[in-house]
Amino acid sequence: MRRFYSPVQAGHAPMHELHNGAFTDYAEKPSRAQAILDAIGGAEQPHDHGVGAIEAVHDAGYLAFLRDAARLWEEAGRPGQAIPYAFPIVGRRPLALSRIDALLGRYSFDATTPLTRETWRAGYGSAQSALAATQAVLGGERAAFALCRPPGHHAGRDYCGGYCHINVAAVAAQAARDAGVARVAVLDIDYHHGNGTQDIFWQRGDVFYASLHADPATDYPFFWGHADEVGEDEGHGATLNLPLPQGTRIDAFRAAQATALAAIARFGAQLLVVSFGADTWEGDPISRFRLTTDDYPLLAADIAALGMPTAIVMEGGYAIDALGTNVTAFLSGF
Ligand code: OKP
Ligand code: ZN
Questions:
Q1: Would you place residue 156 in the very low, low, confident or very high pLDDT band (cuts 50, 70, 90)?
Q2: I need a labelling partner for 42 at 20 to 30 A (CA). Which of 2, 7, 16, 242 fits?
Q3: Mean pLDDT, the chain, whole residue set
Q4: Of 58, 153, 154, 193, which is the active-site residue?
Q5: Does ligand 1 come within 6 angstroms of the Cβ of 309?
Q6: At CA 153, angle to CA 18 and CA 197, rounded to 5?
Q7: DSSP conformation class of 303
Q8: Is residue 152 within 6 Å of ligand 1 at its C-beta?
Q9: Nearest CA-CA partner of 191 in 109, 285, 259
């Protein structure tokens, strides 16, 4: 299987994150990508497909913010990395914001996603990897893998959060639409709900979003991913959420995935984007499902049995010692 990764993706390396009330080591480390690269035997560097496919999904003001935030933070005399702390929850209205703290609150939905001088370039590279995998399957490959890191599924049209800045799955899905694929599906099997992907396609009838994830009643991102969230307007019925309890093992996970795959087939998708997170693994440090390494080929084989051209983009997975093995196991199922 062709696989893609750009070295610029390693540049985003925040020192720490706000985790359960204290600063801890940033879990979404560059060494995640290295561990996967070592296991899959390297990757092709993606061609630069330009910023257009990113602008097709994200707000222009937001992208300017991603480019500028770390510089503005430094110019304000701040140490470390740019982290938001005040959010316009009440009385939202269009304002010409200039203060870095105001911009951070406006364009972030949580405080776990620091921005550095390298964030934009890394997110851009991650999106280029996703685009390269999409081009490969549009060009006839059965499946392709984008080693996306930073991940993307929590990022919305105009906000970052959950370690995500550019929604790489959405960029891939939209690129497929713009290449003429009439109906596209995103299957999200990361441990966490992909609130950003859901939000981007919420009112769209041409892109189906199906997600298996930990119940938002107990798990991040808390506010999205409930079973009754089904999309709106033209998108009504084109969002499918299958929340699962902590402790979920392969049998229940596989059954839920079968439900999602059946819905994707009924929808009539002609191309599939898989948001793959290895944080469903039993040893993941921030997650609470109990999948084993041997479960991943089964899940992948079920997805492959759909017979759809499939671009796989990497999302989470934080047990770095096991990450390469788990990703290899998943890819082997295709
Ligand atoms: C990104 B992805 C809980 C901290 C949660 C954010 C988790 C982001 C996961 N105390 N931090 O979906 O793997
Ligand atoms: Zn996750």
A1: very high
A2: 16
A3: 97
A4: 154
A5: no
A6: 130
A7: H
A8: no
A9: 285
